[in-house]
Amino acid sequence: MKNYSQPNTLGRFGEYGGMYVSETLMPLLLDLDQSYQKIQKDKKFHKELEDLFKNYVGRPSALHHAKNLSAYLNGPKVYFKRDELNHTGAHKINNCLGQILLAKKMGKTRIIAETGAGQHGVATATVCALFGLPCYIYMGSKDIERQKPNVFRMKLLGAKIIPVESGSKSLKDAMNEALRDWIKNVRDTFYIIGSTAGPHPYPKMVRDFQSVIGKEAREQILKIEKKLPDYLIACVGGGSNAMGLFYPFLNDKKVQIIGVEAAGKGPKTNQTAATMTSGTPGILHGSYSYVLQDNDGQIKEAHSISAGLDYPGVGPEHSHLKDIKRAKYYGVTDKEALNAFQLCSKLEGIIPALEPSHALAYLIKAFKNKAKGKTIILNLCGRGDKDLFTAAKAIGFDADE
Amino acid sequence: MNKLDHLPSKNILSLFMTCGFPTLSQSKKVFHELLSHQPDIIEFGLPFSDPMADGPVIQESSKIALKSKITTKQSLNLIAQLKKGSDKTAFVIMCYLNTVQKYGIQKFIKEIKNIVDGLIIVDLPFEEEKPIKNILDKNNIHLIKLISPMTDQKRSKRLLKEAKGFVYYISATGITGSNKLDYQEINKNVLALKKQTKIPVLVGFGIKSKKDVMAISKNTKADGVIIGSALIQKYFDLKMNFTSYIISLRKFIKEVKI
C-alpha cells in the first residue's frame, strides 16, 4: 500500500463517501468544507484545541496495561486506550470541541446534534455550555428511554432535547430529523455530527479530530514497548472512535486492524447492527457506504443492546478499509458483549460502556490462549455509567431499589 | 418527443403524489383523479424509508405506502399503466438515489424510457450527477435541477448551464419556523434564475391553496407551481376516508388549475 491519503477532494474514500444531499444543503456543505480546510492551516485554532484537550478533557488519556485480563486470556498483552477517562466519559468530546471551534469561526449561533447512546449529545451539550451557544439534541424516543442518565445530564447542561418518534425511534431517525432541522435553519445553524458518517466533509473532519486517540496511543506504546502494537481493536457503530485509533496506524502495514460491530441477536437474524458483515453498499445520510437494506433499497432498522452502535450505516472510510482489506470487521452479539462487560468490570475494575464491551467480547473470543507475546491496543472509548440500568435489566438485576 | 420541452408559457401546474399511497390499488385511483384534470406535469414520488429532504406530510405518505409493502417495480408498473391514455401530461419521477442505485441504474432508466420525461433525484447534487445524467441524456429523459435560496448565482449558473425540462425552485427553505411565502424574495430569485436559463422556473414547497397559486402568478415571474404536501395533507384532514379524499382532491385541483 502506498502512503494512505484518503479521501480525495470530493470526499471519496475509494468509491465510498461523497456528498449525497439535496441542493438545500449542498452550498452549506461546500462552505463547511472550505472553512474546515482553512482552519486546518490556522495555528491559533490548533493551539486552542490542544489547550482544551489538555485542560478541559484531561488528555492525553492513559494507556493502561490490562494485566488481569491479559493473564485471563493467556495470550496477548492487552493495553486499554482509556478514552473513557475523558471529561464526559467517552471519546465524543474530542470531536465536539473541534467542531464547535469551527462553528464559532464560521459565525454560527445555534448548534444541533443527533445522539444515540447520549454520549455525543452530552459532549455537544457540554461544549455548548462552555461556549455559550444554544443547543438542540435530536434523540430517538427509544434511546431516551434506555439512556435516562444521559438525558438528565444533557438537560442539566442546558440543552433542549427533541424526542424523535419516527421510524425505529433510534439513532438513524434522530439523524434524519437533525438533517431536516439543518435544511430549515441553514443560515444560523451548525450541525455537529458525532460520527465518521454523513456527507463529506464530516467523515474526514470527525476522523481528524478523533485521531488524537491514535496519535497518543502510538507515542505511548512506542515509549512503553519500544515497538508498534500487533493489533488494534475498536468497536464500530458509525465508527468514530475506531477511525480515531486506526488512522495514525494505517501506514504501519504490520499493525493488524480489527473493527467490531454489534451483531445484536446474531448477524444472520433481522435484529442486528452489523452493517459490514450483514449489509451491502448503499446511500444513507448523504454518503455511499455499507448499509443494512432490503432488496428495494429501503433502509432496515438496526438492533443492538448498545444505543451507540444501533445504526444501520457505517462511516465510508470503514467500508473502504474493509474492501482494500486494510482492516477486518467482525460482529459480536448482545449476549457476548454483556458477558465481556461483566468480565472487564471484575478483572480490571473498569466498568466499560456497552459499546467497547463489543470490542472486549471479540478480544476474549478470538484471543483466548492465542497470539502469545503479541501486543494489542483496545480502544476503551466510553465508561459504563450510562448503561447501568440497561445492563442490570439484561442481566436480571433489580436496580430500581 | 419530451413533453417537458413543450410546456405552456404561463401558469404551469405540477402535482406531486407518492406512489402506493395509501395502498397500491387506491393509489391508482388517486393518480387517475389527478390525470383527469390534465395537469401539465405529474411528479410520481417513489417511497423511501429515509426521506431526509421531505417534510412530515410526505414522510408519512412514504411510510404508509411502505407499510403496504410497495416495491419499486410495482411503482414503475403503476406509472407505465397510467401512461396509457394520458398524452397531455408530462411524467416525472421524484425519488432518492438509493432506490435507483439498488434497482440498478441502467435497468431503472431502461424501464422508464418512453414513459417518463423527467427525473428528480433529490439527494443527487450537481457534483455527483455525471454518470447518471449521461445515461439519461441518451434516453431523452431530463434530469431536473433543484435550486434553493442557498444556491448563489455563481453556482446556479453552473447548475443551469445544461439544464433541461424545468427548474424546481425550492421556495420555503431557510425561513425559520415560518411557512409564509415571501413573494418578494421568491420573485427576486426567480428573476435571477430566468436570466440564466430559458427553461421554465417552477416554484415548489409550501404552496397550499388557490390563494398561494394566484399570488405566485400575480406577484412573481415564476412560470408555474408545484403542489405536493397539500394534496397529501387532505387525506389526513379527512381522517383517512378515501371516498371523501378523492372528492376533495377533485375540488382542490379544479381550484388551483388557473
What's the gist of this structure?
Chain A is of the alpha/beta class. Chain A contains 16 helices and 14 strands. Chain A has 2 domains: 28-52 and 92-206, 3-Layer(aba) Sandwich (Rossmann fold); 58-89 and 212-395, Rossmann fold, CATH 3.40.50.1100.
Give an account of the 3D structure.
The complex is a heterodimer of chains A (401) and B (258). Chain A has 16 helices and 14 strands. In chain A, helix 2 runs antiparallel to helix 4 (92-105) and helix 9 crosses helix 11. Chain A is an alpha/beta fold. Chain A starts with 11 loop residues before the first strand and ends in a 6-residue tail after the last helix. The two termini of chain B are 26 Å apart. Chain B is an alpha/beta fold. In chain B, helix 1 (24-36) runs parallel beside helix 3 (72-83) and helix 1 runs parallel beside helix 11 (242-256). Residues 174-178 of chain B have low confidence and may be disordered. Chain B is globular, with a radius of gyration of 17 Å. The interface between A and B is large, with 36 and 39 residues.
Question: How many structural domains in the coordinates of chain A?
Answer: 2
> How many domains in all of chain B?
2
CATH topology of the largest domain in chain A: Rossmann fold
**What's the CATH architecture name of the largest domain in chain A?**
3-Layer(aba) Sandwich
CATH hierarchy, class of the largest domain in chain B: Alpha Beta
Task: Give the second-level CATH assignment, the architecture of the largest domain in chain B.
Answer: Alpha-Beta Barrel
Number of helices of chain B: 11
Mean pLDDT of chain A: 95
The Cα radius of gyration of chain B reads: 17 Å
Which structural class do you get from the secondary structure elements of chain B?
alpha/beta
- The CATH topology of the largest domain in chain B is what? TIM Barrel
Note the run of SSEs of chain B as H and E. EHEHHEHHEHEEHEHEHEHH
Main beta sheet of chain B: 9 strands, parallel
Helix content of chain B: 40-55%
